[in-house]
Every structure is written in C-alpha cells, then in structure tokens.
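ESCALATION

Customer reports they have been waiting on this structure for their group meeting. Please prioritize. Original submission:
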Amino acid sequence: MATKLATELATESATDSAAALAGAPEVLALSGVDALYGESHVLHGVSFALHPGRVLALLGRNGAGKTTCMNVIVGFLPPRAGDIRLSGESIARLAPERIARKGVGLVPQGRRVFPTLTVREHLLVARQTRHEGKQAWTMERVFELFPALQARQRQAAGTLSGGEQQMLAIGRALMGNPRVLLMDEPSEGLAPVIVAELGRTIARLKGEGQSILLVEQNVNLAFALADDVVLLNTGRVVFSGAAVEARADEALISQHLGVS
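Update from on-call: job pushed to the front of the queue and completed.
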C-alpha cells in the first residue's frame, strides 16, 4: 500500500519545471543557524535552501531538530546565530506576525485549530491579499480544494474530524497567500485513506507553483512528494540534496531515519 501510494504521488507531482527551477533564486534560505532552548543547544549551523515551486522535505528521527527549525523560521524561537532569508530579505529575529505578513505560512503540528471558531471564521481571520502574479487564495478557492469544508463552513472547528481539521489548517495557511508554506507533520494521526488524499493535495499545490517545506515522519509520503531532501541528526545537517539521490542511499536512510 505504501509503495503504491508513493508511486502514485510521485507520478502526480512530477512536473517539467524541475530543470528550469534548478537555477532559480532561493525563496527561503537558512545560513549557519544555531538555536537554543535555554542552555540546550538544539540546532548547530543549519544551512539549506528552498527554491520556488519545489517541495523540500526536512527529515530526521524524533528529536533531530526538525520542529525547532520550523519554529526558528516562523519566529517562535529566535536564532542564536546565523541568518534566515525570504526571497533575499532577512527575516531572522522578526516577530512571528511580521514573518507571516511577509509570506511565511505555517500548517502546525497537531493542527492547532480554535475549537469554538467556525471554519469560515478561521479562514476570514487568516486572509491576506498578497498576489505576486499568482492566483490569490480566497475562501472560494479553499472550498474548491476542500469541498468538505464548504459543507461545514458554519460548523465549529472542534466538532470536525481529524482529517477535516487538517484541511482547515492547510486552508487557513493558504488564506495568507504565502510565498513559502511550512507543513509540520501533516499526516500525523490520520487514517491511510486521508493520508493519500493529503498527499494528492500537496502534489496539487506543488503543481500550482507553491514552495513547500515539509516535515514528515511518513518517509514514503515525504519521498513521493519531495524534490529535495535535508536530513538532520542531533541538530546538524547530514545530507542535503536531491530526493532521488537520498532515497537511493539505503545506508543513509537506515542510519538517519531508521527505515530500509
């Protein structure tokens, strides 16, 4: 089932733009980023880059520093050293709301919807009008992407299923019309059939030119979607390169992800 899903998504998400994007400027770049929680040094000189219209999978075992990386990018945790640049502009040490306004959208781990707000209220609160030559995300577009949300638009988010809450978390992030979409463990806790649908959704967003940084424990899903891979181990980058290259290195995957 996992192999079939990976093959299907890899086929759906493949585009002819990969060669053209190879020389494209970086939409998001981390350079020598260190981060600490108190006295605990979590990230050590982390550097990688995401190019426009591509999916970069940030992978590693539990505790490798993946979510910390996301928290540093969105401003929840300031870097102790290094820089983070969005389309060439430094966003390191800006407040989270300023980073969001500049074009970084987050689909957080655990979804973090507000249980008493309706689906419609979530989308309205998140709306921003940054177009940059792309078709803007509106409530109508989100409902076209997720018809189940349209049917439940006046329903409190706390009454939705886990899959529907994940749809809402993605739709909420898209309503900010982000340059970069960060997705932290989007398949966590979802049934296999919903994971397959999630994969098709991410592939569609990629096909529409959305730049995506994906943290995902489902290795088959991650490799099916990713153009590029960064592997973290104890807060250090141990591999950065093409997803096909990483997947072909069985020793690398076994050592740092614990799968074969």
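Sent to customer with the following note: Residues 10-22 have pLDDT under 50 and may be disordered.
Escalation resolved.
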